[in-house]
Specification:
The chain is of the alpha/beta class. It is built from four helices and nine strands, in the order αααβββββββββα. The N terminus and C terminus are likely disordered.
Amino acid sequence: MSGSSRKPPAAGEPHGPGTPPPIRASHADRDRTVDQLRIAAGDGLLDAAELDQRLEAALTARTLDELAELTVDLPPLASTPGGAAVEVKDVLRIDQQAGSVRKDGHWVVPRRIDLRSSWCDVTFDFTEAVITQDVLSIDMEMHGGTLLLVTGPGVVVNSESLSMSYSKGAVPRPEAPGTPRTLRVELTGHLAYGRIKVGPPRRSFARWLRRTSA
């Protein structure tokens, strides 16, 4: 980060004449800054080292000025069409019989997904998702159908706590240690007579043409 701001007085230190005292930051203020930093990292604006440094500073910040300094060079949080800040759900519940469910585009990843489905294909595409936390837990009770997880850079999937019966599909091994990680998806629960597919997005024909002509 470039630039600097006047260091706020320590506790008990008098303020200069005519200088208003700094406004104390609340837990909600720190949480908003943490969300903004993680979204920026997911968009490639911060590397892993910068993210860790700024997160540590945000969690220990005492004033709003200190928090503002951490995001002065970043775009604001994504907004809804009405202009309100994105709200992250604690739990997204999906209860579907047959058919299909798909979450893609700029959807906001919740902190946990409670998935109950029967003979239903379910897709979670993380390539353009708004990610505001390190871990997503998908607790599933899935009978039949396919679970498709479209991952992007830094998104890894762990299925060690998922039990499977009469099902197929393999989850790729986690990336090498030290690789920047945006989101870890933890699969838990049970899958029967179904299939899991995990991988990056498929290249479109137009993208393939651009690659071959380069």
